[in-house]
């Protein structure tokens, strides 16, 4: 992370090595792929509680992400308080009401039709935890000096991807929820003005009656997402 006065490069011998031979590498990544194919974005949550230590470990995993200039321009707010979750749901549904009443264009609404979304967001109160992801537009040192962050969207996106992966590896489900706009989340979560909320992740166990949109199982084949230039 950024610290005032640290302006020189100091190389450190690679502290950890996890490399393996080609066969073991392929086996490991194929096992990971098979497990990640079991991940689903879920809107229906069980009331079963989730230990705070599990949530903290997931967020710690997100914090290992690489970032522009290692400034780590993210902050995560984890919420289990029912009153606060209800306030977030109320704020989100107000924004969604405007969104579905005309703020979104016809093309956007048509794209959302197969997903089955709407104004009502019960997952925001049903899930035992909400994690609100914030992006820090700039940083502030302990003595109040402002400094620039770099590649903020990219850095926060990588960290959020690691967070979602960690949630899945914990045997939990989540939903990538992005009410538009999300300005109400900053004051509600007590975050400073230079932090922008980018996502709410309801986290928990899936309800017995949980469903997913059929269209969500349609993933582009590898040939459509990969180009290779062999040497």
- Tell me the total number of β-strands: 6
Coarse shape: globular
Helix content: 25-40%
Q: Residue ranges: pLDDT <50 for 5 or more in a row? A: none
Number of H/I helices: 8
CATH architecture classification name of the domain at 57-210? 3-Layer(aba) Sandwich
CATH class of the domain at 57-210: Alpha Beta
Radius of gyration: 20 Å
Q: How is the secondary structure organized here?
A:
Layout: H1 22-36, H2 52-62, E1 74-79, H3 82-103, H4 106-112, H5 123-126, E2 129-136, E3 138-140, E4 146-148, H6 152-169, E5 173-174, H7 185-188, E6 195-204, H8 222-225
Q: Could you give a quick summary of the protein structure above?
A:
This protein has 231 residues and is α+β, with helices and mostly antiparallel strands. The protein has a domain at 57-210: 3-Layer(aba) Sandwich (NADH Oxidase). The protein has helices spanning 22-36, 52-62, 82-103, 106-112, 123-126, 152-169, 185-188, 222-225, and strands at residues 74-79, 129-136, 138-140, 146-148, 173-174, 195-204.
């Amino acid at each position: 992370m950024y610290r005032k006065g640290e302006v020189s490069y100091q190389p450190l011998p690679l502290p950890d090595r996890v490399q393996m031979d080609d066969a073991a590498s392929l086996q490991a990544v194929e096992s990971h792929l098979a497990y990640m194919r079991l991940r689903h974005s879920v809107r229906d949550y069980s009331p079963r509680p989730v230990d705070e230590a599990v949530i903290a470990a997931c967020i710690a995993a997100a914090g290992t992400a690489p970032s522009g200039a290692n400034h780590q321009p993210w902050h995560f707010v984890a919420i289990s308080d029912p009153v606060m979750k209800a306030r977030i749901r109320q704020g989100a549904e107000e924004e969604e009401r405007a969104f579905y009443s005309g703020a979104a264009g016809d093309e956007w609404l048509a794209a959302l039709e197969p997903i089955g979304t709407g104004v009502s967001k019960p997952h925001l109160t049903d899930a035992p935890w909400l994690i609100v992801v914030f992006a820090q537009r700039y940083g502030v040192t302990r003595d109040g000096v402002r400094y620039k962050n770099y590649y903020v969207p990219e850095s926060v996106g990588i960290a959020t991807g690691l967070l979602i992966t960690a949630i899945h590896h914990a045997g939990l489900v989540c939903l990538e929820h992005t009410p538009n706009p999300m300005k109400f989340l900053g004051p509600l979560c007590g975050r400073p003005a230079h932090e922008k909320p980018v996502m709410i992740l309801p986290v928990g166990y899936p309800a017995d009656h949980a469903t997913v949109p059929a269209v969500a199982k349609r993933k582009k084949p590898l040939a459509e997402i990969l180009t290779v230039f062999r040497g």
